[in-house]
Amino acid sequence: MKLIMAVVQDIDSPKLVAELTRNNIGVTKLSSTGGFLQRGNTTLLMGVEEERLDEVLKIIEKICRPRKHVIAPFPASPGETMAPYPIEVTVGGATVFVMNVERFEKI
Ligand code: 2BA
Fold this sequence. Notes:
Layout: E1 2-8, H1 13-22, E2 28-33, E3 40-48, H2 53-63, E4 67-71, E5 87-91, E6 94-100
Antiparallel strand pairs: 1-3, 1-6, 2-3, 4-5
Helix pairs in contact: 1-2
Bound molecules: ligand 2BA.
């Protein structure tokens, strides 16, 4: 069994959760915050049998779109001067981690 942890944009999360659930893939949704943008995003946990791993990754890829965000000038760290110009970053589609599950039980 594998544990998939996917960080996705909030805007993609309802559709993705619905599609995973429709396909009988168990999913837990956590509210999270990106360290760089300090904006809300969504982290999904999915425990899946190895045979279904590619299927789940394809669903994530189909639904999660990369989007550009322009961020206003901000200090790199407290006390530092502002970056002099806005920065454009591309967020997503999704940041996905796949981990081996040593043991899985529902008690
Ligand atoms: P954030 O940390 O808010 O990052 C949002 C986007 O900002 C990133 O998109 C990337 O395009 C850009 N970015 C991040 N760090 C940067 C830096 N030091 N310099 C310049 N640009 C930077 P994604 O790469 O698609 O990441 C989306 C979200 O996925 C991240 O939100 C974070 O919550 C998560 N994430 C990404 N890589 C991760 C990792 N290695 N471990 C844990 N979470 C990760």
